[in-house]
Every structure is written in C-alpha cells, then in structure tokens.
Amino acid sequence: MKAILLGTGTSQGVPVIGCSCNVCRSSDPRDKRLRTSAMISDGITNILIDCGPDLRQQMLTNQVSSLHAILISHEHNDHIIGLDEIRPFNFSQQIVMPIWATERVKTELYARFHFAFAEESYPGAPRARVEPLMKNKYIKIGNIEILPIEASHGFMPVMGFRIGDFTYLTDVKTIHQDQLNLVLGSKILIINALRREEHHSHLNLQEALDIIEQVQPQQAYLTHISHHLGLASVLNKQLPYNVRLAYDNQEIHW
What we know:
By secondary structure, the chain is α/β, with parallel strands linked by helices.
C-alpha cells in the first residue's frame, strides 16, 4: 500500500499570498505546501482523501490517470472545493464518481455542487454520487478496507481514516479516547499540527506530539501546516526521532 501526500498546507497554503516571512520566502521545496489532501493506492485502486482547491495541480504533478473514489473528512472549502476537477476522470473512466461522506457533509456538497448530483445536468458537468460514511463502520473500496474514525475540529465532527497500519487524521483539535483507541497500533500516523501557538480548532505542535506519544507509531508525519510553524530544515532537527514534517508529494509505503 502507498499514500501520496498531495498537499500538506493549511487553508491558505504556503507561501501565503503577500507574506514575506522566512518560511514563505524559503527556496526549500519542503516549505512549499498546497492545501491538505492525500491519495491511497494499492496499485489498482486509487482513493483520494479530500479534494481541495489545488486538486488539478496535484493530479497533474503526480501523473494520476485514474481515480476510483473520494473520502471527505469534512466540508470546509479547503477540503471540498476542488470537486469540479473530477471531470476528466468522469470522462476518461466513464464513471459517476463515488464520494464517501457523512450526512452533514452530503448536505453541504449538494448545496454547493448541486449540478454534480442532478439527474439531468448540463453537458460537461462533473458527475458524482454520495455513499454513507459513519464512524466505526468499515467501508471497502476495491480491495482496500477503511475504518472511519471521528474526531473534533473545534465544534465540528471530522472523519479520519485507518487503512491497515496507516492512519490519517487532519483538522483535528480533540479526539475522544474510544476513537483514539482505534488509532492505537498504527505503524504510520499522519496528523495535523498547525503552529506552535494554541488554536481553537486545530492541534498545535505540542498537542500533536502528545497524541503521537499516546499512539506510539513507528513513524509520524505532521500535516496541515501553516507558515507559522517554521522552516522544515530547522523544525525536523527539533522533533522526536520518529516525527517529521510531511511535505508535498511525499510517498509513504506500508
């Protein structure tokens, strides 16, 4: 199994428009961050986690020629607004794209992308259907089994995903112990760490490290990173031996 971290940045990406901080001016490619997204693949089935505003660029950069399903963590724009970019897959694969989402997220998708779900729509419109996503209830796409895990993004429930020894959690602020128990035993953990300072709806660096300490993965990668967190070249030297900043287009195998 393989994950490609298509984007590892927060909702504004890095560099931030108009910012001249040392991270935004960095020439290190590890400091260039598109909006957070990932793709899971077993070599046959490709599953996208979230489809933000950079989806077209992410698909082209990684030469993705087929896509079989999309998992949506939650309905914020930086995680869904690229839905229109599924059209080439609709056309080339002759499919209606299955999107796995909770009922709340489904309502938002229908409101913002009604044309993608209409029985009759204009020629060339994206075509999608929503499949039910519920915490603790396994889903299977191709030969890939996925366990949805619920966390909280401030007051908003969000979904993370465990695939075998790999767990992906983004936009998390808190996670109840019963759900954290489902993460335990993961060899690889992807988890958000927005910045060093406290934030009302995202884990900061220390909070993310505290969860990593509880999970004890062989390797953890920090994602959904803002320019406030610092330079990758500096921060990676300060992190525990099994924790690193994720970077765009990074491949992880398990």
